[in-house]
C-alpha cells in the first residue's frame, strides 16, 4: 500500500509539474525572446535559450515613440490602476456593508439585481456607455476609465465582501451600538479593519483587470501621451512595415512585473480573503 501511494504521488507531481510548465511556457518564451536579436526571434522560435543575449530590446523599447518614453506609459497605467482600484475598494466595501448589516426594504431585490449584473457581458454595455460618455465630453480623458469604478457597483467584489462581513459576529455590532456608534462608526471602526483580507483580494483583482484593460483604453484614449502600457504595446507592431517584436516582448515582460510583485507581496491576504469569504460566523 505504501509503495502504491508513493507511486501515485510521484505520478501526480509529475503531471502537475508538466501541466504547470505547459501553462508558463508562453511567458517563459516571451521572456527569453526579449533577449534575442529582433531579426532572429522567429527564425529561432523553436529554441528557448538565445544564442546571444542582448539588451538592445529593453533599451530601444524604453525609448518609446515620438519622444514619449515607455516610462510615461507605465506612469499612466499606474495612475489609472491605483485610482480605479482605490475607488472600487471604497465603494464596494460601503455597498457590501449596507447589504450585509443594514435592514431596509428591497434589500434582497437589490442583492439579486447585483448578482444578475455580474452575468451581463461587458460588450452589451459598450455602445451605450460610449454614447453616454461622448455626450458628457469624457471621451479622450481618463474619466471613463476611473469614474465608473469609483461610483458603480462591482458585483463580484461586493459579493466577496458581503460573504466576508457575514462571517464577522454581529455581537460586535450590537456592542458598538450600545456604546453609541452609528452605522458608519461600526463600518469604519469595527468592520473595515477586520475585512482587510477581502479588500486586498478585491484590490489585487481590480488592479490586475485595470492594468490590462486594453479594450476600454482603445475606445476612450486617443492621445499617445495618455496611452497606458497595454495600449502602447501595440505600437511596436506595424502591419505596413517591419515590427520590432524584440522591443515589444521586452516591454511586455516589464509590464507583468508589477502584477507579479503585487501578487507575491499580498499572497497571504489573497488566500485568506478567498478562503474566509465563504464562511459564516
From TrEMBL:
<dbReference type="InterPro" id="IPR035906">
    <property type="entry name" value="MetI-like_sf"/>
</dbReference>
<comment type="similarity">
    <text>Belongs to the binding-protein-dependent transport system permease family.</text>
</comment>
<feature type="transmembrane region" description="Helical">
    <location>
        <begin position="109"/>
        <end position="133"/>
    </location>
</feature>
<keyword id="KW-0472">Membrane</keyword>
<dbReference type="GO" id="GO:0005886">
    <property type="term" value="C:plasma membrane"/>
</dbReference>
<keyword id="KW-0812">Transmembrane</keyword>
<feature type="transmembrane region" description="Helical">
    <location>
        <begin position="78"/>
        <end position="97"/>
    </location>
</feature>
<feature type="transmembrane region" description="Helical">
    <location>
        <begin position="186"/>
        <end position="209"/>
    </location>
</feature>
<keyword id="KW-1003">Cell membrane</keyword>
<feature type="transmembrane region" description="Helical">
    <location>
        <begin position="12"/>
        <end position="32"/>
    </location>
</feature>
<dbReference type="GO" id="GO:0055085">
    <property type="term" value="P:transmembrane transport"/>
</dbReference>
<dbReference type="Pfam" id="PF00528">
    <property type="entry name" value="BPD_transp_1"/>
</dbReference>
<keyword id="KW-1133">Transmembrane helix</keyword>
<dbReference type="InterPro" id="IPR000515">
    <property type="entry name" value="MetI-like"/>
</dbReference>
<feature type="domain" description="ABC transmembrane type-1">
    <location>
        <begin position="74"/>
        <end position="266"/>
    </location>
</feature>
<feature type="transmembrane region" description="Helical">
    <location>
        <begin position="145"/>
        <end position="165"/>
    </location>
</feature>
<feature type="transmembrane region" description="Helical">
    <location>
        <begin position="245"/>
        <end position="266"/>
    </location>
</feature>
<protein>
    <submittedName>
        <fullName>Trehalose transport system permease protein SugB</fullName>
    </submittedName>
</protein>
<keyword id="KW-0813">Transport</keyword>
